[in-house]
Amino acid sequence: MIPLEHSFFNRPATEVARELLGAQLTRVLDGHHLSGIITEAEAYLGEEDLGCHAHAGKTRRNAVMYGPPGFAYIYFTYGMHWMLNAVTGAEGSPAAVLIRAIQPLAGVEWLAANRPRLAGKPGWLDGPAKLTQALAIDGDLNGFDLCDPGCDLFLAAGDAIAPERIQATPRIGLYSVPEPWKSIPWRFLVTADDPLLYNENSK
DNA sequence: CGGCCGATTATCT
DNA sequence: GATAATCGGCCGG
């Protein structure tokens, strides 16, 4: 297990999003390790990006994005869902990568216990709110250091995904975001025919 | 299958 | 007072 370094995140969000595919996300819960391999991620690139939460400047919610890279930006939306992001780029420049899907790697029985209805079905961890539910991630973890394996939430290196196994599409759910931001292909996911890191959303 | 729609509340204006 | 980086159930074909 090799934790990712803060320098890994101190790059453009698009680059980090691509390279986070294949990386290992681990949540320590009640002494158990719940882990998954990231198969989908989206990049949000600062105040210029009208799809990014930082587009209107710094607020209490997005403050972590303005901090140093490698930390967790976790926010609440649609009245019921928590979203997990990794802050990217230098301190003071707000950008992040939204983790959108994982394949189960360890502690599957605990992941399943958090998703009693969907556990085991195809795509049961393929969705940004699905994985936060399975990993029991909420606002209490906002601002945590994702590079510290002593944290209850951290990221570690995995097998690199070859470029030809990665597809890019527009980001999801940006209904009221103007063009071109709505259509820029800053969503990255492992292709559907990948035997190991299959992502239900890539069909 | 695919498309539509209601749920539910922290945060922002 | 309005909005939301979603999900899952329900409906029709």
The count of strands amounts to 8
Structural class, by secondary structure, is: alpha+beta
Would you identify the CATH architecture?
Roll
Write down the Rg: 16 Å
Q: Assign the CATH topology.
A: 3-methyladenine DNA Glycosylase, Chain A
What is the average of the pLDDT values?
Answer: 95
Could you name the CATH class?
A: Alpha Beta
User: Which parts are unreliable, with pLDDT below 50 for 5 consecutive residues or more?
Assistant: none
CATH homologous superfamily (4th level) name: Methylpurine-DNA glycosylase (MPG)
Strand count, sense and closure of the main sheet? 8 strands, antiparallel
Helix share bin: 10-25%
Which term fits the overall shape? globular
- Tell me the number of structural domains: 1
Oligomer: single chain
Alpha-carbon distance between the termini? 31 Å
Task: Please provide the ordered H/E string of secondary-structure elements.
Answer: HHEEEEEHHEEE
Beta-strand residue percentage: 25-35%
